[in-house]
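Q: Protein A?
A:
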Amino acid sequence: MEFKNILENNVPQGHSAEEILAMAMKMQRSMSLYESGIKEICTKLEILQREAQVQGIHNPIESIKSRVKNIFSVIEKLNRKGFEVSMESVEKNLYDVAGVRVICPYIDDIYVVAERIRRQDDLRVLIEKDYIKYPKANGYRSFHMVVEVPVFLSDSKRYVRVEIQLRTIAMDFWASLEHQIRYKMESQIPDEISYRLRQCAETIAATDAEMQDLYKEVRALSHNEE
């Protein structure tokens, strides 16, 4: 959403558009903390990738993507949820300002990576949600973690929340296209299309499970030949 639309239609009660713009500029300077938090998480994940490559073992991480929410989207979300528009409110109330998406080859890899994240003793795991074992009603599957990562500044240490989404390649394919469809229809998806999207999610989930089984069989055969 463009910021001008937020100013025109969603200015929090008791504030002028000019005040919100000033807040946005002030908050933007503090958003670098979230960028630093993402770098810390990505570095940890990249180390796990390199370790697998060096050891010549199966790499549970296919790729890593990251993003920090646009400051205007952050303000819109605070306003929509009825929270104060300030950096303090962001740190207190929002969990997904900084996001890292980890794409894994197989379902089992997701749980391997999640466990390795838990073992990082400088991280605080705040939330875990398993949408693989318990998919959302629309068919969405993924494993979500919210962690706090320390960011060391020149004069202090700050903990920053980062949301980590763990998905297979197939799960990411479905979620990306479902998001595009939902966006084009402005979230008002007819029941028939919602049903077909859920059916696609089920088909993809079955394919994911079959590919996992095939990988295990091939690995077992390779070990037997050795």
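Q: Protein B?
A:
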Amino acid sequence: MLGAVCAAEPDLKRPNILLILADDMGWSDVGCYGSEIATPNLDSLARGGLRFTQFYNTAKCNPSRACLLTGVYAQQCRMMNPAKIQNAVTLGEVLRTAGYRTLWSGKHHGTENPFTRGFDHYFGLRDGACNYFNPGFQRPGEGRPAQKRYGGRSWCIDDQTLQPYTPVEKDFYTTDYFTKYGLKWLDELQQSDPAGHTPFFLYMAYHAPHDPLMAWPEDIAKYQQVPGRL
């Protein structure tokens, strides 16, 4: 429907779209819903927008993500086993036909590279879970990263699929680097199109707070005395 509307009305102002997904997070884990965790930026968005009071998912992360990406149930797009979208199109594929720059940073939890499903850029965990600080092999001078399946996770950077992905950056942390890539792409789009003629669809699919629960020591320290902490 979106593609048809944009094609019929070429002068229609197309809004930029930012879609943020946090993995396996309860609704009350955000400050605006009463969480003890400080989420000031999300709270600001809530104050200036709408807060939903009901939400449903499909009990597991990869079929829920498929529903969000395609608008149909996971059984309809066959995002079950193997975890590959079939008989459906993604938001990236639809919005690209409407002239959008399509960007995805974060987790997928599927068997295909999102770069092949309508996204101009993709950076992130193609798999279901990983070590937040190092999803790959042990690096010099560091201990072996705690992983459920050592070196067995798949990572994609645009058309490349890496297994494993061992980042060279010592400050690597999945949430931080998903955000860095998203911001980098927006900066590149602004430089190439300063007048803003090209709208963007940016899908930020965060790995946190999916198992394993990992955070920077300074962030953990802030909540040591907070009631209700784990």
